[in-house]
Amino acid sequence: MKKLIFYVFGPCSPGDEKYVTILYHITGNLGKSRHFFEFGLGGTIIGGNTTQPYLFYPIVGYRILPLKSKRLNFRVFGLIPFSGRITDDILFMPFGLNLGISI
């Protein structure tokens, strides 16, 4: 059985695998005023000793944009890889939450 260790800050233990990930996505929005349905495609390139070096996935979400500048914007989204399986050696988050300030 493989042990999953999750590090947020600091160095990894010497025996643990190390990975580099590069994420990208492109999305579109449908809606009026402040509320939008978001859809798109994205991918993650995984560098390191992994069984699955690339994940490609659809993105579906909901976005709230402010009507005035310098206000909070919000986005929540979900994604599931097209491959149907998620590699068992890297933790994959199938959802996300973004907060920001509009300019």
Overall body shape: elongated
How much is the average pLDDT? 84
**Secondary structure tally, helices:** 0
Instruction: Walk across the major sheet and give the strand order.
Output: 1-2-3-4-5
Approximate helicity band = under 10%
The structural domain count equals 1
Radius of gyration of CA atoms, rounded to a whole number: 17 Å
Strand elements, count:
5
Structure, explained:
- With 103 residues, the protein is mainly β.
- The chain has one domain.
- It has strands spanning 20-32, 35-47, 54-64, 72-79, 95-101.
- Strands 1-2-3-4-5 form a five-stranded antiparallel β-sheet, with no helix packed on it.
- β2 and β3 (54-64) form a beta hairpin.
- The radius of gyration is 17 Å and the shape is elongated.
Describe the protein's topology.
Blueprint: E1 20-32, E2 35-47, E3 54-64, E4 72-79, E5 95-101
Antiparallel strand pairs: 1-2, 2-3, 3-4, 4-5
Describe, in short, the structure shown.
With 103 residues, the chain is mostly beta strands.
Throw out a few tags for this protein.
mainly beta, 103 residues, five-stranded antiparallel sheet
